[in-house]
């Protein structure tokens, strides 16, 4: 009744309707900001639903939690390397020389109520932030959500992951405890290995010789202003592009390249996403309250002459640590200068190369497949076996390097020989990922075969039929039209065959070679892929099924016809009815 | 890949199954059953209520529980604050999601997509505007203006770089020297006590430092100022080890650098600079806990495993007139991680 001025049933006096207060506020705002035009569509903007779309949300919300808990911590943290003698409430460290940064971290942990909770929430949220970005990125990769027109959003996402890792490392270094100082010591070694400029870069970074008295305040500025500012700006760009492109969706009945089906932002997604923020926040609070993380008071203040056995960086630095550990000790001394391949390659070249491959990936795949069209429907990982297998190989490499980063822990935990583990890893990172690639590719292809099999011959019903001759067969039942459509809702691969005839003749020699390479890669990309059935194949299979069905016709309506399972009709006296 | 796809000319077969369209909407129990609807409403309100209770309990715990109170072996305040805050947040989240799933409309809506690109006309108009702007500026016709501007902008990068010069001093030769010098005592790293050769057993490892880090008399300042000690320690920290003189291999670089089987090595790893501290008495191997570079102290500190490329620098020691271990001189090579001009 909100749209009428008054209500009456004709016999009683009219009552004036209450003015809607929300409308009044909206009018007030619109007269000043003109927001109605901008919001009229966005308020009911449609988002499709799938559990995997939640992964990026975890990353977003954990960043918000990082901002909130970080502001709390900054009220007490003192980013200074000035030396003090500890006289706080943690008995074991009384009388010890330490930096102001470390003392204020102890103060937050022991003397500020809820300080330890916030510190641990901040650290757990940082773990969650990076992990969620990584898993979200894998989801986007596996389902082809990075394809045109979303390549730029993929790049923004890749840069966000890099910034997240740098931000995490800066934060890890701030408390100035023994572990964080050791991390900085290693960073100093990495910087010093830079050709030509290494020692200068190190001196400028630390304000003199390592550790100096500048690095903590400088990292603090980077940690609370510079990097979070960049992350915030890039998240804004990421979200704006998401809204502009509209979210991708899984193919299914009624879902096409030209539409997006789901629930409106207001109210369903506002409640779901808003609620999910509180769930992420709540889980982080429980973790921060109940699970110890980075107990800096146990490590003691930084001392360049001390380190503990089993020192480990935070998990997201694990692959860099692993590369550094398994690299052979190669160093070149030539013309009076030193080039430390053992540090420069794993510490600088490898991360940059990895980042470049990640950022360039959408364009590399586009070039190989020749697919320059817009895509809004997601792909099932099995339907792009080469891409899926590539990621499987990359995950394997990541896992191996991670294990290599903990080779000492592996050795002591499983009573293995440290040197053997290291030698094994040196070979394994080149041998095992290609094997996993082959395995994953074949696995995808057999899943494709299984899909095709189900489309042509139906699914296995588990019902065993005995025929007149006494032979046994399993009854196959046809898929529902919705399921069958969903299984076929993907594109047929088209191999890039290379230019031919007059087009090829016009190319210069290097370009022709490149074109041939592209054609070969394209062929390899699709090799082994199973085609979804054609109309003719499907008709043929259905015809065949009908013949079989005619054979079973006398059973129709009896318990043995199997239809009680697919819901086509009920069977008298059969209690197993399950509706699909 | 089936063969017919190697010929790009063949017709692609039509889609085998037509899109059946959006499935019919099925009502939820809360859509059709007022009892279920009322129940869901109560559930949501209860969850929100529990959140409020938890928030109040957080405040009560904050004031009621002492900082040092312990509950079943755990710090009680931390436990109470974490649990109540976590539950206060979780209940709001779970309540909001329950509300959206049970009570808000679950009719799916369809929105149409448009290509990311602008229309052809818009693009043409934008390009025309851009061309007009370029034309009006005359940047194409006046290369002198364009080039001088580019030059000026490029040179503006210099102040941005030069202004950062004072981030730190230049390295000079500071990485080549430590505080060690002729006659400086090698002392215990914990309390600064000097060490006599007879204090050390065969097989023993002692973490040591130069005497300059400790006051020579009670109440005096050490020779190295307090704020420089960490930076100097990052280069000058050493280890003393005593081995059977027979076990020590030929010391080609270091004739007479030890005292009765006691050798002194830099503690700073030549890989990326971690302090090396894991000593294998039987094999005379020293292992870096950071990246597992292993050095053989009986064989000139040679690298026998791991990512380090250079041997561990050795400090020549002798005994002074009072019988304490002292340095013969500074290290004769830079300690710690490699760098370009190290040579």
Can you offer a commentary on this structure?
The complex is a heterodimer of chains A (580) and B (343). Chain A is built from 21 helices and ten strands. By secondary structure, chain A is mainly alpha-helical. Chain A has a two-stranded antiparallel ribbon with strand order 1-2. A two-stranded antiparallel ribbon of chain A has the order 3-6. Chain A has a two-stranded antiparallel sheet with strand order 4-5. Chain A is globular. The model of chain A has no long low-confidence stretch (mean pLDDT 90). In chain B, β10 and β11 form a beta hairpin. In chain B, the strands form four sheets. In chain B, strands 4-5-6-7-12 form a five-stranded antiparallel beta sheet. In chain B, α2 runs antiparallel to α3. Chain B has helices spanning 29-32, 34-64, 76-102, 120-137, 143-162, 229-236; strands spanning 70-71, 74-75, 109-112, 186-188, 205-210, 238-242, 262-266, 278-280, 285-287, 294-296, 302-305, 314-315, 317-319, 325-327. Chain B is an alpha+beta fold. The longest helix of chain B has 31 residues, at 34-64. Chains A and B meet through α7, α8, β6, α10 and α12 of A and α3, β3 and α6 of B. β6 (259-264) of chain A pairs antiparallel with β3 of chain B.
Please sum up the structure shown:
The complex is a heterodimer of chains A (580) and B (343). With 580 residues, chain A is mainly alpha-helical.
Number of strands of chain B: 14
As for the CATH topology of the largest domain in chain A, it is Cytochrome Bc1 Complex, Chain C
Contiguous low-pLDDT stretches of chain A (5 residues minimum) are none
**How far is the N terminus from the C terminus of chain A?**
41 Å
Sheet with most strands of chain B:
5 strands, antiparallel
How many domains make up the coordinates of chain A? 3
Q: What oligomeric state best describes the polypeptide chains here?
A: heterodimer
Overall number of strands of chain A: 10
Secondary-structure-derived class of chain B: alpha+beta
Please give the CATH architecture of the domain at 177-342 in chain B: 3-layer Sandwich
CATH class of the largest domain in chain A: Mainly Alpha
Number of helical segments with 4 or more residues of chain A: 21
Residue windows where pLDDT falls under 50 for at least 5 positions of chain B: 1-10
Distance from first to last alpha carbon of chain B: 57 Å
Helix content of chain B: 25-40%
């Amino acid at each position: 009744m909100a749209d009428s001025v008054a209500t009456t049933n004709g016999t009683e006096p009219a009552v004036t309707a209450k003015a809607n207060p929300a409308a009044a506020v909206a009018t007030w705002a619109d007269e000043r900001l003109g927001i109605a035009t901008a919001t009229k569509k966005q308020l009911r903007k449609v988002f499709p639903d799938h559990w995997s779309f939640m992964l990026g949300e975890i990353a977003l919300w954990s960043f918000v939690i990082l901002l909130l808990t970080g502001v709390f911590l900054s009220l007490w943290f003192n980013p200074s390397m000035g030396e003090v003698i500890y006289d706080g409430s943690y008995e074991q460290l009384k009388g010890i020389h330490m930096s102001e940064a470390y003392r204020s971290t102890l103060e937050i942990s022991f003397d500020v109520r809820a300080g330890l909770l916030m510190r641990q929430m901040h650290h757990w949220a940082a773990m969650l932030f990076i992990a969620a970005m990584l898993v979200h990125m894998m989801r986007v990769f596996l389902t082809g959500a990075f394809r045109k027109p979303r390549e730029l959003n993929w790049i923004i996402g890749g840069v966000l992951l890099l910034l997240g890792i740098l931000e995490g490392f800066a934060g890890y270094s701030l408390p100035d405890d023994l572990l964080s100082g050791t991390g900085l010591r290693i960073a100093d070694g990495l910087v010093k290995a830079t050709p030509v400029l290494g020692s200068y870069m190190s001196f400028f970074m630390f304000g003199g010789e390592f550790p100096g008295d500048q690095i903590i305040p400088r990292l603090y500025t980077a940690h609370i202003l510079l990097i979070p500012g960049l992350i915030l700006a890039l998240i804004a760009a990421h979200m704006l592009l998401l809204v502009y492109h509209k979210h991708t969706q899984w193919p299914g009945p009624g879902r096409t390249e030209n539409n997006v089906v789901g629930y409106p932002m207001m109210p369903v997604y506002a409640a779901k996403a808003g609620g999910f923020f509180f769930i992420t926040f709540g889980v982080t609070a429980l973790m921060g309250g109940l699970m110890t993380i980075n107990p800096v008071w146990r490590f003691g203040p930084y001392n360049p002459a001390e380190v503990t056995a089993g020192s480990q960086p935070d998990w997201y630095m694990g692959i860099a640590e692993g590369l550094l550990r398994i690299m052979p000790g190669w160093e070149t001394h030539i013309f009076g200068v030193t080039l430390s391949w053992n540090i420069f390659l794993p510490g600088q070249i490898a991360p940059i190369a990895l980042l470049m491959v990640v950022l360039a990936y959408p364009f590399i795949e586009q070039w190989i497949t020749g697919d320059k069209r817009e895509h809004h429907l997601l792909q099932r990982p099995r339907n792009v076996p080469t891409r899926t297998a590539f990621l499987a190989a990359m995950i394997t490499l990541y896992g191996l390097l991670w294990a290599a980063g903990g080779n000492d822990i592996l050795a002591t935990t499983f009573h293995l020989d440290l040197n053997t583990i290291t030698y094994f890893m040196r070979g394994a990172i080149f041998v095992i990922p290609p094997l996993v690639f082959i395995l994953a590719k074949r696995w995808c292809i057999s899943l494709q075969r299984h899909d095709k099999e189900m489309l042509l011959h139906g699914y296995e019903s588990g019902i065993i039929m005995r025929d007149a001759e006494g032979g046994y067969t399993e009854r196959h039942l046809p898929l529902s039209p919705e399921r069958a459509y969903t299984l076929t809702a993907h594109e047929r691969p088209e191999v890039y065959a290379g230019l031919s005839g007059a087009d090829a003749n016009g190319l210069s020699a290097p370009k022709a070679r490149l074109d041939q390479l592209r054609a070969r890669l394209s062929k390899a990309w699709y090799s082994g892929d199973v085609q979804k059935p054609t109309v003719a194949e499907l008709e043929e299979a259905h015809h065949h099924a009908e013949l079989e069905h005619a054979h079973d016709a006398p059973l129709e309506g009896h318990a043995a016809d199997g239809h009680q399972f697919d819901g086509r009709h009920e069977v008298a006296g059969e209690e197993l009815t399950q509706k699909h | 890949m089936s063969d017919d796809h190697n010929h790009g000319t063949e017709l692609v077969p039509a889609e085998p199954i037509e899109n059946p369209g959006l499935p019919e909407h099925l009502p939820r129990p809360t859509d059709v059953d007022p009892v279920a609807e009322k129940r869901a409403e109560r559930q949501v309100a209860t969850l929100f209520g529990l959140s409020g209770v938890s928030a109040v309990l957080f405040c009560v715990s904050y004031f009621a529980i002492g900082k040092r109170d312990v509950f079943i072996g755990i710090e009680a305040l931390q436990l109470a604050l974490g649990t109540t805050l976590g539950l206060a947040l979780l209940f709001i989240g779970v309540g909001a999601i329950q509300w959206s799933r049970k009570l808000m409309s679950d009719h799916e809506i369809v929105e149409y997509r448009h290509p990311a690109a602008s229309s052809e006309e818009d693009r043409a108009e934008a390009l025309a505007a851009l061309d007009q702007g370029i034309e009006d500026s005359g940047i194409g016709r006046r290369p002198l203006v364009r080039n001088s501007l580019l030059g000026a902008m490029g040179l503006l990068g210099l102040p941005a770089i030069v202004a950062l010069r004072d981030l730190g001093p230049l390295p000079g030769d500071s990485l080549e020297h430590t505080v060690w010098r002729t006659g400086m005592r090698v002392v215990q790293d914990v309390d600064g006590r000097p060490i006599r050769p007879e204090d050390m057993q065969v097989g023993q490892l002692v973490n040591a430092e130069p005497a300059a880090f400790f006051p020579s008399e009670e109440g005096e300042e050490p020779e190295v100022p307090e704020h420089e000690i960490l930076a100097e320690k990052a280069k000058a920290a050493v280890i003393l080890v005593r081995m059977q003189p027979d076990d020590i291999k030929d010391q080609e670089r270091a004739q007479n650098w030890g005292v009765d089987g006691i050798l002194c090595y830099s503690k700073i790893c030549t890989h990326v600079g971690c302090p090396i501290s894991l000593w294998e008495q039987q094999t005379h191997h020293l292992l870096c806990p950071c990246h597992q570079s292993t050095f053989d102290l009986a064989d000139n500190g040679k690298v026998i495993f791991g990512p380090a490329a250079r041997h561990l620098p050795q400090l020549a020691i002798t005994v002074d007139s009072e019988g304490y271990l002292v340095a013969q001189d500074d290290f004769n090579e830079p300690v710690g991680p490699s760098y370009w001009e190290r040579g």
